[in-house]
Amino acid sequence: MKKWVGLLVALVALSGCSVQKMAGDAVLNYTKTEAIPYLMSQGDLSSACTMGEGLGPVVASLAQIELSPEEVGIGTMMAAGMCAEVDQREAELEKMRALYENRTSAAQDALIREKMGHHLAASRMYTAYENSIKTYGDLSEGCRKYDSETEELLSLLGIASGALALLHDFNSEKVVGIPLDVPVKIEKAAQCFSDDKWWGMPTALRASIWLSIPGSGPEGVDPLTAMEDAARKGDKQGVGLARAMLAMMATNVGNDEVKCRALANASQDGMNNAHYALLNAYAFQMMMHQSDMVWTRAQGYRAPYMTIGCPMASKAPAMSDDDLDDILGDMGFDEPVEDTENEIKE
Asked: The pTM is what?
C-alpha cells in the first residue's frame, strides 16, 4: 500500500511540475506573439508601463521552473522602466518650479526624488538590456539573423534600453554601476540594424554614445548632425524615436539651438506609423518633457497642453542665470542643476 501511495505522490508532483511549465510556456508564447504586438499598436503608454510593472516579475519568476523568460523580459522590463521615467520627469519639473520660485528646500527634496527615479529606470532598463544579451547574444561580437521581425524589434529595443540605462545611471550618480565596456558594446551592436528599416534609430543610438564619450565617434562626423539626419529618416517612416533622442541628447550637451530645432520640427506626420503607436507615444512623451523643462525654466510652468517646442525668445526667463547660480550655491551646487544633472560627458 505504501508503495502505491509513494508512486501516486511522485506522479502528482511530476504532473504539477509539468502543468507549471505548460502554463509558463503559454504565458511566454502569448506575451511574445499577442500581447507585445498588440501593445506596440496601441498608444496608451500608461497601460503599457503598468503592464510591464505587473507582468515583469511574473515573467521573470518563470526562470525558477527552468523556463527562459529573458526574451519576453526585454519588453516587460523596458515598459516598467518607462513608469520609473514618468516619476523621474515629474520630480525634475517640480525641482525646476521650486528653483523658479526660490524654494530651495523643495528643490532639494525634488532633486532627491528625481535621482531615485533615475536609479529605478536605470536598473529596469539595464535588466532589459541584459535580457537581450542572454536571448540574442552579444551583438558587439557579431550580428545575427532573426526568425521574425518581432525578434529583431525586441533585440533593437534591448540595445536602446541599454543606452537609456546608461543615461539614467549617470544621473543617479552611477548607483547601478553599469560596466564601463557597455557603451562600446551598444555602439557596435547598433551597427547590426538598418536605419532605413528601423526609423533612423541605430544611428541615433550610436551617436548618443559618441556624445557620451568624446572622441569615440568616426573622425569628421558631428554626432548631433548625424542624429539630425537619423531624425529625418525616422520622420519619413512615421516613428519619432530618433527625433526624441536628438532632443534629449542636445539637452544633455547643452546645445539649446539643436534642441529647440529638433522640437520645432516634430510633427504629427513624423509620428503616424500605426504599427508602432506605443513607441511614438513614448517619443512624444520624451519630447514633451524637453518642452516642459524649457517652458518651466523660462515661465515657471510646463509647456501648453500638447505643445512641443520652446517658448518664443521674447519671453525672457523671470530668473536670471546669476540668480539661479546663487540659489544653487546655497544648496551646495556649483552649476545649475539642469546642467549638472543632464551632463553626460565624463
From this structure: 0.82
Buried b (16+ CB within 10 A) or exposed e, 192-221: bbebeebbbbbbbbbbbbbbbeeeebeeee
Name the pLDDT band for 61 (thresholds 50, 70, 90).
confident
C-alpha cell at 270: 513624423
Question: Residue type at 125?
Answer: M
Contact partners, residue 2, CB within 8 Å, separation at least 6: none
* Straight-line distance from the first to the last Cα atom of the chain, in angstroms, rounded to the nearest whole number: 73
The amino acid present at 297, given as its one-letter code, is R
How far apart, in whole angstroms, are the C-alpha atoms of residue 141 and residue 283? 29
Instruction: Find cell 551646487 and name the residue.
Output: 333
Q: What's the mean pLDDT in 28-46?
A: 82
Average pLDDT on 176-196 reads 95
Number of neighbours of residue 188 by Cβ within 10 angstroms: 18
What is the rounded distance in angstroms from the CA atom of residue 209 to the CA atom of residue 26? 38
Q: 224: Cβ–Cβ under 8 A, 6 or more apart, which residues?
A: 207, 211, 246, 249, 250, 253, 255, 258
Contacts 24+ apart (CB under 8 A), 218-224: 223/249, 224/249, 224/250, 224/253, 224/255, 224/258
In the chain, the amino acid numbered 26 is: A
pLDDT tens digits for range 93-133? 999 999 999 999 999 999 999 999 999 999 999 999 999 99
Per-residue confidence (pLDDT) for residue 263, from 0 to 100: 96
d(CA 278, CA 207): 23
Q: What is the mean pLDDT of residues 54-64?
A: 80
